[in-house]
């Protein structure tokens, strides 16, 4: 198992565009991750058939996560989307479908991101503040459009690579999740991968024993000076594991 990395977590205030920061919601100006060992678990491509199981596991360990949902799946599963939000998890925009945005026109990118943004807001009553591009593929058009919608780009800092079919074994994905875990990391996974959801009880139990707090991406980013359209966490000049899907 890899040696745990200790990566400084930025501290101060949260998203400038939000009406209330996570810290303010807690009745304090001090960022939670200034005094806690934080990690952000993120799950893509839902909601789907394993969402409820995942929500139950997260609740058991009092863990908060960030779900980057797809517009087509939100349309199919509005109640599941609402359950995610009601459980206190963060919902991010993962575009309308799995189309790579870098292969589309500006107008097409605008429609896929915008339609998803509006549907999530209509379904949950809250507009997302975070965006993750399908496949992690971004260009200037994606940056401009996400900025227009007030979205931060969050590709993730590391991944279990559960998008690789040969990795889809519970023991392997459990080990990978524990290997890539580290303070301040944003871990990319997929709630649509059954083995990932099945690995979560052991992952959460082990990391809880190691003192981790499982937080949303917005809580993790408290303290950053955040600019819509830009990529966060900002690891420029820092070696990281690419998180692509």
Summarize the structure in words.
The chain is of the alpha/beta class. It has a single domain (35-220), classed as Glycoside hydrolase/deacetylase (TIM Barrel), CATH 3.20.20. It has helices spanning 22-25, 51-60, 71-76, 78-86, 106-124, 140-148, 170-180, 194-209, 217-220, and strands at 37-44, 66-69, 90-93, 130-131, 152-153, 158-159, 186-190, 212-214. Strands 1, 2, 3, 6, 7 and 8 form a six-stranded parallel beta sheet that branches. It is globular. It starts with 21 loop residues before the first helix and ends in a 25-residue tail after the last helix. Mean pLDDT is 89; it is low at 1-20 and 239-244.
Instruction: Please name the CATH topology.
Output: TIM Barrel
Sheet having the most strands: 6 strands, parallel
Low-confidence stretches: 1-20, 239-244
**CATH top level?**
Alpha Beta
Instruction: Tell me the strand percentage band.
Output: 5-15%
Report the strand count: 8
CATH architecture: Alpha-Beta Barrel
Instruction: Report the CATH superfamily.
Output: Glycoside hydrolase/deacetylase
H/I helix tally: 9
Helix content: 25-40%
Strand pairing plus helix content: what structural class?
alpha/beta
**Ends distance:** 23 Å
Order of SSEs: HEHEHHEHEHEEHEHEH
> What value does the Rg take, in angstroms?
17 Å
Mean pLDDT comes to 89
Name the shape in a single word.
globular
